[in-house]
Amino acid sequence: MMFSFKVSEASSISNMTYTFYKSADGVVFDTNNAINIKIPAQGSTVRVDYGTNITVNGVGYLELFNITNASLGTMTNYGVTYGIKQLAP
User: CA-CA distance, 1 to 39, in Å (whole number)?
Assistant: First the structure.
């Protein structure tokens, strides 16, 4: 997954946390085993791009539940991009 955002406060060195819930059917989501991705805001007003792999072990659906901004600044221009790696036959 690729995450991007911009923070309006240059002195804020804290984490942005993206929380995802997993589901097998897209209806009932497991709220007890959330996937939390913590990304450092880096104390900058420039755009932050962060990429990581998420292992979901065959889960069919991910729901972006929330984004937590722990900095003093306003978080803008945020986005999430994903790609799917299919297993070879």
Answer: 12
